[in-house]
């Protein structure tokens, strides 16, 4: 019995050592560029410090000037897990070997947010009809091409569904992140810009209330699922289990002091998060539908493409949409 017990303990120790060895060290965490890297690093530092202590490895933040930089870093194994928007997460899943494992939520438990078009509070732009006059008298601040709320959602709901493009409507189009677009509108550098409810109402309203007062919302999208956390699919199962446990227990389990401290750390991240929820690639279903519809509408409005080629490409997109719809029906509301 003693020999069996000793053997069992040895196996446990070996398994534990093996699991620890499988966790990349350092563990690189990608953080998308919604604000300056200095602000992001300060806000994420307590969370990353707790992750390092729990996993017993060095945890390093990885920043890039745009979303594509984080996607490419994951593709070439320079990033092991990352915070993405849904559009950039889709790119990471499709092109960089990523896999969604968790979803951020707000402190009040809200599981989504909205894309916005914003204008100066004192401007004559009050609704989407004013935007779609398209008389080329206005300037427009678009979002990062890999941003869900800053680019993909307005591209579909504002432009594609109305058979317009920003180039059709504005005398000048520039691109920036949410913070840059909000300040550009507030300071009169652009007349209209994309943004989202988190950036405007939860972040700018708190950090820069004077600029916030200069901005008004002129359009709001349907609900967008909250941002996902994505890990490299090739990580070992033992590593995934440890990461999953860390994220899902954070701010949820332990004594009151621990939970309060962790909730305070989460509240500093992005627009103020609550504890994470488990998720999967099924979270991307509405985003995939948006992206496919956008391609379809672009094809339908293309007057230069050969009719036969156009019909073939539209049929291919319809087949992809049918597959996404079939998957959506299979996973139902429990897909996340």
Q: Main β-sheet, in a few words?
A: 6 strands, mixed
Task: Assign the CATH superfamily of the largest domain.
Answer: Periplasmic binding protein-like II
Regarding quaternary structure, how should these chains be classified?
single chain
Q: What is the CATH top level name of the largest domain?
A: Alpha Beta
Give the helix tally: 14
CATH-derived architecture of the largest domain = 3-Layer(aba) Sandwich
Instruction: Tell me the span between the first and last alpha carbons.
Output: 46 Å
Strand percent estimate: 15-25%
Tell me the structural class.
Answer: alpha/beta
Q: Uncertain runs with pLDDT below 50, 5 residues or more?
A: 1-20
Task: Tell me what you see in this structure.
The chain is an alpha/beta fold and 336 residues long. It is 50% helix and 16% strand. It has 3 domains: 164 residues, D-Maltodextrin-Binding Protein, domain 2; 113 residues, 3-Layer(aba) Sandwich (D-Maltodextrin-Binding Protein, domain 2), CATH 3.40.190.10; 52 residues, Methane Monooxygenase Hydroxylase, Chain G, domain 1 (Up-down Bundle). The protein has a 6-stranded mixed β-sheet, sandwiched between helices. A 5-stranded mixed β-sheet has the order 8-7-9-6-10. Strands 5-11 form a two-stranded antiparallel ribbon. The protein is globular. It starts with a helix and ends in a 5-residue tail after the last helix.
